[in-house]
Write a structure and sequence with these properties.
Elements: E1 10-13, H1 20-29, E2 32-35, H2 37-54, H3 80-91, E3 95-98, H4 101-115, H5 124-135, E4 139-140, E5 143-145, H6 154-164, E6 169-171, E7 177-179, H7 180-186, H8 198-201, H9 207-237, H10 247-251, H11 256-269, H12 273-280, H13 290-293, H14 295-317, E8 325-326, E9 332-333, H15 341-369, H16 392-408, H17 430-462, H18 473-483, H19 496-507, H20 510-517
Parallel strand pairs: 1-2
Antiparallel strand pairs: 3-5, 4-6, 6-7, 8-9
Helix pairs in contact: 1-4, 1-9, 3-6, 4-5, 4-9, 9-11, 9-14, 9-15, 9-17, 11-14, 14-15, 15-16, 15-17, 16-17, 17-19, 18-20
Length: 524
């Protein structure tokens, strides 16, 4: 595990909805979290409501009753702190592979943001302790199974609340797995004894799936622009035509994402001698294959899907999700806002778009390797075909990933399994949708990396193994960045490390930055 990098920046909660960049800053880069004075005031106000209800003889859900199907049992005052402890201990029931640190930190920040609205009824000390965990880099250990995406991401959030109590296992800032009590003590933090309503308030929300959605959106902005760069390089490397990307042709179908993608491809191909040479020769192909010609249509549809997902995420970040919730006029009301359907749907929708973008990328790569379709390149881009196999098996790797992405595109949100003795009889499976989208994004990163690695090799072979000005300036910049990490064409060598180097260049934005460096404006 990587040590968190504290950027020296901070995110203040309780002044309005979280921005997407705030979640990325805290989850990935260790930005500090602060609670605004307004949030403390709001929490004190709603806590007064809870304490008044706790003194009431009438049963109030989450304050003086059991939970879920056990809500019919009223709990006497002497057992209510035990009730909250028991809730957290019993619900911290995850299993399976450990969830990535950035997901849990995003989940914790989203829950803390809701606490800071003052709509949950927790004491400020609870929110301050939660902020203390984040700022100390203490991350609860959570297994991948345990949330059905309804009644909150229950098991993941319960593991976080358990750490707040000084129980369970956590990762420290340097990645060591230790008991929570030990980590709290080392950080100078005190365990919290939860009071009425507070345990429930810590576990009722769509925070985990929202965190995964927000991180995925950030990743996909990078990857979809990178996919445009990859498509442009493949068009150039396969001696295709740029005419189809003309603005007036794209305007005939005014899908906004399509126009953005086409504009990116035009910008990357601008100034390409290889493209211009095809226009001045004899007979040329009337039309390129769909994987080249229709790249803006597919990439653009993915961009439009991403825009819809951003709208859903923005609404969710502006929400105060808890059950029951303290309303602005001081009522404690049960509700169904914890249901993850809105988030689950778009997580699944993005997985479909990811699979299709990757599928098209693999088809472009395959064209480079078939001498019948590569327009003069060696079979499989091999240095000495027959003796060498070139990128033959790199395409197999792509194909295996694309096949997996198609399975991951099967929606999780259409499934539901009743729970809690049929009280919770319809659930969203949004947490599962988020986990599979994360795996899909990793797959897309690898597929694009192989396409870029392959197109760079093909262009080097067309130029006699040297990066020359026959490529467009933006393509030349990408090829140069690739060659700084991966050697150019030659006899077969160990290919896996080269694929990994290309993956890292895609994932950290280096190749996109290289293209941007040669353009008047950054790609969108």
């Amino acid at each position: 595990m990587k040590t968190l990098l504290n950027t020296g920046t901070s995110v203040e909660l309780g002044t309005g909805p979280l921005a997407a960049g705030d979640i990325v800053a805290v989850a990935r880069h260790g930005a500090a979290v602060l609670l605004s004075p307004a949030s403390i005031t709001a929490m004190l106000s709603s806590r007064a409501v809870i304490e008044e209800l706790a003194a009431d003889e009438k049963p109030h859900y989450g304050v003086s009753t059991g939970f879920g199907a056990l809500a019919t049992k009223q709990i006497v005052p002497q057992q209510r702190r035990q009730l909250q402890r028991s809730l957290i201990r019993s619900h911290a029931a995850s299993s399976g592979a450990e969830v990535d640190r950035e997901v849990i930190r995003a989940l914790m920040l989203n829950r803390l943001s809701t606490l800071a609205t003052g709509r949950t009824g927790v004491r400020p000390v609870v929110a301050q302790a939660y902020a203390g965990l984040l700022n100390a880099g203490i991350t609860p250990v959570v297994g991948e199974y345990g949330s059905l995406g309804c009644s909150g991401d229950l098991a993941p959030l319960s593991h976080c609340a358990l750490a707040l109590m000084g129980e369970g296992e956590v990762r420290t800032a340097d990645g060591a797995k230790v008991p929570a009590g030990e980590a709290l003590s080392a950080a100078g933090l005190e365990p919290v004894e939860l009071q009425e309503k507070e345990g429930l308030a810590l576990i009722n929300g769509t925070d985990g799936m929202l965190g995964m959605l927000t991180l995925a959106i950030a990743d996909l902005h990078l990857l979809l622009s990178t996919a445009d760069v990859a498509a442009a390089m493949s068009v150039e490397g396969l001696l295709g035509s740029d005419a189809v990307f003309a603005a007036d042709l794209q305007a005939l179908r005014p899908q906004p994402g399509q126009g953005e993608s086409a504009a990116n491809i035009r910008a990357v191909l601008a100034g390409s001698s290889l493209i211009e040479e095809q226009k001045t020769g004899g007979f040329t192909r009337v039309q390129d294959a769909y994987s080249l010609r229709c790249a803006p249509q597919v990439h653009g549809a993915a961009r439009s899907t991403l825009a819809h997902a951003e709208m859903v995420a923005e609404c969710e970040r502006a929400s105060a999700i808890d059950n029951p919730v303290v309303t602005l006029d001081g009522r404690l009301e049960s509700n169904g806002n914890f249901h993850g359907a809105p988030v689950g749907y778009v997580l699944d929708f993005l997985a479909i778009a990811v699979a299709d973008v990757a599928s098209m990328s693999e088809r472009r790569t395959d064209r480079f390797l078939d001498r019948n379709r590569s327009h003069g390149l060696n079979a499989f881009l091999a240095f000495d075909p027959g003796v060498d196999s070139g990128h033959m098996i790199a395409q197999y790797t792509q194909a295996g990933i694309v096949s997996e992405l198609k399975r991951l595109a099967v929606p999780a949100s259409v499934d539901s399994i009743p729970s809690s003795a049929m009280q919770e009889d319809h659930v969203s499976m949004g947490w599962a949708a988020g986990l599979k989208l994360r795996r899909a994004i990793d797959g897309l990163t690898r597929v694009l990396a192989i396409e870029l690695l392959t197109s760079a090799r093909a262009l080097d072979m067309r130029d006699g193994g040297v990066v020359t000005s026959r490529s467009a300036p933006a393509v030349t910049a990408v090829r140069t960045a690739m060659r700084a990490a991966v050697d150019g064409p030659g006899p077969d060598r160990y290919l896996a490390p080269e694929i990994e180097s290309a993956r890292l260049l895609v994932a950290d934005g280096s190749l996109l930055a290289a293209a941007d460096s040669a353009l008047d404006r950054p790609l969108v």
